[in-house]
Amino acid sequence: AQKVTQAQTEISVVEKEDVTLDCVYETRDTTYYLFWYKQPPSGELVFLIRRNSFDEQNEISGRYSWNFQKSTSSFNFTITASQVVDSAVYFCALEHGSSNTGKLIFGQGTTLQVKP
Amino acid sequence: DADVTQTPRNRITKTGKRIMLECSQTKGHDRMYWYRQDPGLGLRLIYYSFDVKDINKGEISDGYSVSRQAQAKFSLSLESAIPNQTALYFCATSDGTVGNTIYFGEGSWLTVV
């Protein structure tokens, strides 16, 4: 079965704190893709990152970093020095079936609130 | 202008009414998708289309139908809306090539009363 679990429903931090959003996935596929999307209060989905199963290098983009560990089936997302504008719902997703189908399995989402 | 445009952005409709959500894209992608978002459940796939002649059911297609009128247009219909179809609906596109990104529209809020 294909599944994505984001165990943290809501997280609240104070501005400038670091925060990590957890994502654990299940798949029998050897080739798969993992995504993170941000959904600000306005409702749109903003693409953050796409990672394939053969690339376990961690990625950093500004204050954002991602830790992909196949051994634990996790793809965690860290925001360093959080800001109020980071307040949003964050979704982790898995592209299942054959590669590049665009059929995504989403986690339940983690609501991040960054307080000033 | 947005690459993936959804209309209407907000709609309130009554139980039993037919409602259509429309999606158009300017990215020239062959693949289009309709997802539904419910609180605490993330997004779930309703239907997807890999080209104009290809329509496939997703995870939760019951109560919905779709039409791919052209490469750029993919509409979702609720033939007889019911209150538990109240949700945020997203259209998405991708070109299907290696490394492709899936682009989402801005969402359509549908309330069935």
Provide structural commentary:
- The complex is a heterodimer of chains A (116) and B (113).
- Chain A is mainly beta.
- Chain A is 0% helix and 52% strand.
- Chain A has strands spanning 3-5, 10-14, 19-21, 24-26, 33-39, 46-52, 59-61, 64-69, 74-79, 88-95, 104-106, 110-115.
- In chain A, the strands form 3 sheets. In chain A, strands 2, 5, 6, 10, 11 and 12 form a 6-stranded mixed sheet that branches. A 4-stranded antiparallel sheet of chain A has the order 3-9-8-7, with no helix packed on it. Chain A has a two-stranded antiparallel sheet with strand order 1-4.
- In chain A, β8 (64-69) and β9 (74-79) form a beta hairpin.
- Chain A is globular.
- By secondary structure, chain B is mainly β.
- Helix content of chain B is 0%, strand content 57%.
- Chain B contains no helices and 11 strands.
- Chain B has strands at 4-7, 10-13, 19-25, 31-38, 42-51, 54-57, 65-70, 73-78, 87-94, 103-104, 108-112.
- In chain B, strands 2, 4, 5, 6, 9, 10 and 11 form a 7-stranded mixed sheet that branches. Chain B has a 4-stranded antiparallel sheet with strand order 1-3-8-7, with no helix packed on it.
- Chain B is globular.
- The model of chain B has no long low-confidence stretch (mean pLDDT 92).
- Chain A binds chain B through residues 4, 6, 9, 35, 37, 42-45, 47, 50, 91, 93, 99-104, 106-109, and chain B through 31, 33, 35, 40-45, 48, 58, 88, 90, 92, 94, 96-107, 109.
